[in-house]
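Support request from a user on the community tier.

User writes: "When I paste my structure tokens into the form, the page sometimes reloads and wipes my input. The last time it worked, I copied everything first. Here is what I submitted, just in case something in the input itself triggers the reload:"
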């Protein structure tokens, strides 16, 4: 027997079964029940009616609801621990029994796409107004395992879908209905198995983005290691700084299967440029003009955006001019601190130079006069 119906045989579940007259069995559907208990005058061969199945009868020992139990060996007894729920408050006396009749008609939610409403809104273990199978429910924003089974198309799931996982795990299937269902109760090993083969993955072309919302973090490990290496080689960022795949792979960080927030990544790249043109100053020192260009790259890793390459450094500045000699610096400092004295020294120096020039001129003229006189005296002695 399929678990779809077998799971309904537990008459001990509150709100699943209630007493109904044989002519009011339709109230099972309108009252959102799983089944009903018949009148007392029903025998073991009792016909529960269309779309219902007899799964046992209630044993009566004359002790009222305390002994409201399914008969041993029945389908109801196999699934129920103790008494059935929903006793009408009175017991049957004598031979006839109350029969336990379970609905044998599929729930409306699983004949169409209404099962997603059950997995998002239905109260635990209730049928509810959407005619949900009571095991399709949402408790504290977590869909039941049977909801996950439909999305993963597990064995004996409650709804067979054409194409199986290749349909249900697509990004656009029922507007992404399976994304939240799987995220809250996922089997990662099963996701890795699906996401590492066709149609989600190809060894030649890589990820199929039609499945990236679910498979973004579950492609083969080689995909993420190669991606990290490419990013590291391009940006010169050490691989260890790129962190987990959820931080550097946009397919993973944008997947519906992860909510990990990655730390922001700040990278500072500096290039120290030294330019020497061969000039040496009078003191024998080499003057070097040094420029340092730094570029900072900020990356918001929480969105899985891999950091880009740091900007190229600016061109180095022009080399500095050769510095002044020690003598020149001394003169400049003296001139700055002793202006009056400096002026006096300049005047005296100029005066001295003028006197020196005048003295030289006078000496030269005297020498010429002496030469002329000597020339005139010699002929006179000869005569």
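"...and here is what came back when it finally went through:"
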């Amino acid at each position: 027997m399929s678990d779809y119906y077998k799971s309904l045989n537990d008459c001990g579940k509150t709100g699943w079964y209630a007493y109904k007259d044989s002519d009011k069995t339709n109230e099972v559907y309108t009252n959102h029940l799983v089944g009903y208990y018949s009148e007392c005058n029903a025998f073991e061969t009792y016909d529960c009616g269309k779309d219902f199945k007899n799964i046992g009868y209630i044993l009566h020992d004359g002790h009222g609801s305390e002994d409201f139990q399914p008969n041993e060996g029945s389908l109801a007894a196999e699934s129920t621990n103790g008494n059935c729920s929903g006793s009408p408050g009175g017991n049957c006396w004598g031979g006839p029994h109350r029969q336990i009749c379970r609905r044998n008609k599929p729930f409306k939610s699983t004949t169409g796409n209404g099962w997603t409403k059950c997995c998002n809104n239905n109260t635990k273990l209730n049928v509810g107004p959407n005619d949900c199978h009571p095991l399709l429910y949402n408790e504290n924003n977590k869909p039941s395992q049977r909801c996950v089974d439909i999305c993963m198309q597990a064995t004996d799931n409650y709804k067979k879908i054409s194409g199986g996982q290749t349909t249900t795990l697509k990004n656009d299937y029922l507007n992404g209905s399976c994304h939240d269902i799987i995220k809250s109760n996922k089997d990662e090993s099963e996701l890795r198995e699906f996401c590492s083969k066709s149609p989600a993955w190809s060894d030649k072309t890589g990820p199929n983005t039609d499945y990236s919302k679910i498979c973004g973090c579950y492609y083969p490990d080689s995909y993420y290691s190669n991606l990290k290496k490419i990013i590291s080689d391009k940006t010169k960022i050490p691989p260890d700084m790129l962190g987990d795949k959820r931080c550097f792979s946009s397919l993973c960080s944008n997947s519906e299967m992860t909510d990990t927030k990655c730390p922001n990544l700040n990278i500072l790249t500096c290039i120290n440029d030294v330019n020497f043109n061969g000039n040496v100053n009078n003191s024998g020192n080499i003057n070097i003009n040094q420029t340092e260009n730094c570029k900072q790259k900020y990356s918001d890793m929480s969105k899985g955006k891999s950091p880009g390459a740091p900007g190229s450094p600016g061109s180095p500045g022009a080399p500095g001019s050769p510095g002044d000699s020690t003598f020149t610096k001394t003169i400049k400092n003296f001139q700055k601190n002793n202006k009056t004295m400096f002026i006096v020294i300049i005047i005296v120096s100029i005066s001295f130079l003028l006197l020196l020039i005048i003295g030289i001129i006078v000496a030269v003229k005297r020498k010429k006069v002496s030469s002329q006189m000597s020339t005139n005296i010699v002929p006179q002695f000869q005569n």
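Agent notes: The reload is a front-end session timeout and is unrelated to the input. Residues 339-382 form the longest helix (44 residues). The CA atoms of residues 168 and 174 lie 8 Å apart. Escalated to web team.
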